[in-house]
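From the pipeline queue, job 12 of 40. The input is one protein chain; the requested action is below.

Action: predict structure.
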Amino acid sequence: MNKQPSNSDLDIKQIDPTLYNEDLAPLKPQDRNWGAFEIFNVWSNDIQSLFGYTLAASLFLSYGLNGWAVMAAIILAGVIVMFLVNLTGKPSVKYGIPFPVMVRASMGVRGANLPALLRAIVGIFWYGVQTYFASTAVALLITALFGAGNGSTFLGLSGVAWLSFVIVWLFQIAIFWQGIERIKHFLNWAGPLVYVVMVVLMIIVWFQAGSELLPAVSTIFSGSGEQSGSSFGAFLAIVGTMVAYFAAVVINFGDFTRFVKTERQMKLGNLLGLPLNVAFFSFIALIITAGTLVLFGDALTNPADIVERVDSLPLTIVAALTFFAATVGINLVANFIPPAYDLANLFPSKISFKMGGLITAVIAFFVGALWISVISQIGVPGFVNALGAIVAPFYGIIVVDYYLIKRQHLNMQELFSSAPSSAYYYVNGWNSRALIAFGGAALFSLSTVVVPAFESLGGYGWLIGAGLGGLFYYGLMRQFKAVPAPAM
């Protein structure tokens, strides 16, 4: 029933310049060269970025739970995300299309620009934030080698910090301008290397903390947080926050799986890269965070600060380079590729993949520059939840549409057609039912983050939004299930 499309099915016969360019066109299986290792490294770099570590470490301190309970919650989030991305990644493995093309099936060939634009905004924000975090590693290196400068600051950043930020920003542009293959190679060596450094850092901290470390893991975190309410509620809030951290990638996972030859490779990469990877990384974060409390009396959640306190020049140099590499790696893949496709989808004849990436980088420069003085004041978990809540309903809409409404069959020719009679044209290119489903679900999921009365649901904003989006969409679209799927 779920027959694979032939190469001729993936050849777009009628070229509509408002919907098509070579970057958006279906990739045929023979043109794909990603496997389980590449998918694993998408996740390993995402988790191992400086922002990812800081978020995980801050969760150990924010909710007043035992350290092992926090670790279990983070691992459960990894299992949930694996299940979610297996669903959104499958259609792009089958058809070789990126997210903004895939979402045309549910939102309409013109309506797809709404989720694409919102996803681009989220990606641009993350790109700027991750660029700042990567620059802290470079600043650590420059300070270790040449000193910290005169201490004057502008927008919360010192001269060394500004120099580091500009270096990272230009470096990323140089990498992505060379294309997806160079990004893939960069990611493949950055992911494993950063694990080596994190393990070394953990061993050093563990050795220095000695016998006080394990008791610290069990007792120091317990009851130390500011979160009120039940332990079970805090546990679920941590799960929700970690799912929200991955939210943007979960929705547009097809941007990566379109490069994978088989669904089996995708699922293996997700298994290794999410539950197993998150378990190991959470253990490292737990041990290091407990160790910093024992050694320094402070809970240090930024690895760059920890390396600075350890005060070993060789470790500082190696760690700074690897933290930089890991954060740049995930930034290029998770926060550059999606907005580049999304912006290209807006005006395919005028914006290429590279031009979309350049627009992303320019806007993200200002986001990163304002991170310290403005954006970070919102608070890291709140920032993650707010961004995730806005785009969450699209996940439910996409999954319900593909699996329950379209029954895993898409017509590639009509995904690239603006003819009023085409299957995905709906009304003037927009699916009004999908818009209603999105609006209703987004209003509720965002309120869990910004409305004080719903504050207790804050950690669940993404999951609620995704669930409601799918539920509303199915309710509005279920009468269309009887429409025959295109022959494949």
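Job complete. Strands lie at 153-154, 157-158.
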